[in-house]
Amino acid sequence: MDLRQHEIDKSLGFIASRRSVYPKDFTAIELTKDQLQSLLSVACYAPTHKLTEPWHFVGFMNDRIEEFRYLQTKVLKETIIDERTREIKLKKLDFKCAQSAAVVAIIMKRDSEKRVPQWEEISAVSCAVQNIWLHAESHGLCGYWSSGSTANYQIVRSHFDLNDEDLHLGWLFLGGIPDEPRRERRRTAPEDFMNIIG
User: What one-character-per-residue DSSP string does 138-192 give?
Assistant: First the structure.
């Protein structure tokens, strides 16, 4: 096997093994600010039409995770009327914050000239997140992209000072990869989703 094929197989390994891991399953891992910055920096290699580079990330870690928890708490208290349900959600939130090495806000900052359609900007941000996710995997980290009820909620939008064209697309929770063996995931066979002509 030549070196190029080896590198392709290695890259495919990270792609094939990438999975969503809930914060409850994270193992403890230390993450420095420099490491998180390095992790997020791979976003710049994502495809982006007209080089609009619409991705923007805000990382919460260490004591600053408390700021994220406070923001989430405000939204939950405003959106959930039933007190018991709200308390359950708040306890889950506390646990997720305690388990996570970092929580990253995923934001699409729309090109001010609107040179490309919104869906292309969202697609570019999604590709950027995939880059981050795969890079995290190669460094012993796993993640979970949460796009629940607090995504793009007005309290969150105001906190990040988003304009009308920007979108908050959710949160990327990061933590250590679980020790247990990975379960096989059922995926559609490649021949069932492609048609090669020629």
Answer: HTTEEEEEE-STTTT-HHHHHHTT--TT-EEEEEEEEEEPPSSPPPP-----GGG
Task: Say what the alpha-carbon torsion angle 152, 68, 138, 25 is, to the nearest 10 degrees.
Answer: -100
The model carries a pTM of: 0.87
Q: What is the pLDDT of residues 13-28, one digit of tens each?
A: 667 777 888 889 899 9
What tokens does 5 get?
């094929």
Q: What is the pLDDT of residues 29-64, one digit of tens each?
A: 888 999 999 999 999 999 999 999 999 999 999 989
Q: Sketch out the chain's domains with CATH numbers.
A: 22-179 (3.40.109.10)
Longest Cα separation, the chain: 62
